[in-house]
Amino acid sequence: MLLSSYPLYLSNRPVAANTDLVVTNKYTGETATRVALADAETILRAISAATSAQEQCRNMPAFARAAILNHAVTRMRERFEELAEALTVEAGKPIKDSRGEVTRGIDTFRLAAEEATRIYGEYAPLDISPRAEGYESIVKRVPIGVCSFISPFNFPINLAAHKIAPAIACGCPWVLKPASRTPVSALILGEILAETDLPEGAFSILPCSRKGADLFTTDERFKLLSFTGSPDVGWALKAKAGKKPVILELGGNAACIVDEDVDQDYAVRRMMIGAFYQSGQSCIGVQRVIIHESIYDEFKTKLAGAASKLIAGDPMNEDTFIGPMITEGDAVRMESWVNDAVSGGARVLCGGKRDGVFFDPTFVENVPAGADLYCKEAFGPVATVEPFSTFAQACDIANNSVFGLQVGVFTRDIHNAFYAWNNLEVGGVVVNDVPSFRVDSMPYGGVKDSGLGREGIRYAIEDMTELRLMVLNRIGATPE
After folding, report:
1. Which CATH number fits domain 5-250+450-468: 3.40.605.10, 3.30.70.100, 3.30.1330.10, 3.10.490.10?
2. pTM of the full predicted structure?
3. Residue 260 annotated as catalytic
4. Could you tell me which residues come within 8 angstroms of residue 424 by beta carbon, excluding any fewer than 6 positions away?
């Protein structure tokens, strides 16, 4: 189980400055541990240390960076159950799901170790006209500099890993603010990284208040900000970030289209995971199910029946599928959104009830298009269902959103699959699975209000590096 307290990590070292941040067990509501909280002075010291470490980080050879990342892989495997239990306590994630996240975190560091040794440039001839005869060029990627990272509560290990691991792979020092509700697993990663040969100042992990976190956005010594979290916060941070590039992985109200020719039982099984994994607290969780009219009644009945059988309870129980939401306030909000939709003419097919921090797995039909439940990000175990008549109409319905992260499309028609890929306004189209599917090597991110840039190790490295050109004049260097 968790220790009684955890230090923050300042310039690679643990600092038990205080125990001001209380981390609760999301199932019991009791204090699980206490964590050191960084103040503004500590954040400034971390930024200064990272700035001083830039040259050493930049000059680390690829094999050394890969070795650090492989050390993290080894130690995460050795501390697998400790990390999984920490996730379950601090995030309320069912233990099976917690183990899945730790596995993905290991994969993310392993991928970064591989990519550290293949950050390629290119050779480019320049003799496109007579004036450039004898000129050629070489382009390489160089680290962008000190990076500012802010990670969310719902995937405390893996979404932190998607920032940390590529930064180490390409030689960028960094400062991470983990979510205040779920800082423990990131601090365990800090303990693991402190065992390595990273240059002093190469990293800091600083739980802090939202007010203190303003420095993560505004300090000009940061050369890149990568934020994962809510759209309102993300776009506000971008507005204050100044000249630095900003990577935003924000929210969504992901649609899932179910065509008339699908294996319904398979689609229903996948939908249970897509809509209700981690109590729906995922930005690519299924929120809108769009079903062909010829199978609508049958399919929605199957969805409601399957959802009613999901087991809720203690997330440490191996059989639990539905754990608590992150706070009771979020469960209350979810209840309010469902009730408001019903007042507007919607009908609850299953669920719809709250019990403290728990909210039942819920499907709702006839939801008004202007209802919060339909047009905003629910971030809870609730999904809407509606029919469509033509596939083009289904895609139009899916596109009728300010968000554009991922869409799932269940179909056996290859023409419909390509139509979806060509016409859906999203970062990714997942065919014959839910939009919640993600492999940690793929380019992941959204359009519209869902964000900017892409995660996935190779793609994150592109954002964390800059192109540097060298032009060679062979004629001027010709020996006599």
Report:
1. 3.40.605.10
2. 0.96
3. no
4. 395, 398, 399, 407
